[in-house]
Every structure is written in structure tokens, then in C-alpha cells.
Design brief:
The chain has a domain of 46 residues. It is built from no helices and three strands. Strands 1-2-3 form a three-stranded antiparallel sheet, with no helix packed on it. It has 68 residues and is mainly beta. It is globular. The chain binds zinc ion. The site of zinc ion (ZN) has 8 residues, from loops. The site of zinc ion has 8 residues, from loops.
């Protein structure tokens, strides 16, 4: 997945390629921006593989790591 952090509203969508098949999300794909609270969300639909997803740009991620 291609995503940049710190994207500003009104700029190009930070998702340029389909996170499922990797093809370019060109003018034939569907990318729609919306907001949920403070989060900027990009709903996308890939014409090539028909995958749909909501992509949320992040600056930090907290995850879990199994015990070693
Ligand atoms: Zn795709």
C-alpha cells in the first residue's frame, strides 16, 4: 500500500495504488475522501480487481508483539 503521512486536505489522495492487486488507482478507479471525527478516510474501489477498502493515513501505530 502506498500511503503518505501528513497529507493535507485538498491535496491529492495519498493512495496511488490498489492495496490488494497493486495496480494504479487511475481515473477509472474510485477514491472518495471523507472524515470521521479527526480521521481523514479514503474509500477506494479498484476497477481491476473490484477490491474496496477504507484507508486511514496514520502518523503512529501501536501494535502487539508476541513474547519471545
Ligand atoms: Zn486492485
Amino acid at each position: 500500500m502506498t500511503a503518505q503521512t501528513g497529507a493535507r486536505s485538498g491535496s491529492r489522495p495519498p493512495v496511488a495504488f490498489c492495496p490488494h492487486c497493486g495496480r494504479s488507482l487511475n481515473h477509472q478507479a474510485f477514491v472518495q475522501e471523507y472524515w470521521t471525527g479527526q480521521s481523514r478516510v479514503f474509500h477506494l474501489w479498484c476497477r481491476a480487481c473490484r477490491f474496496t477498502a477504507d484507508v486511514v493515513p496514520t502518523e503512529r501505530m501501536l501494535g502487539h508483539e508476541p513474547a519471545h
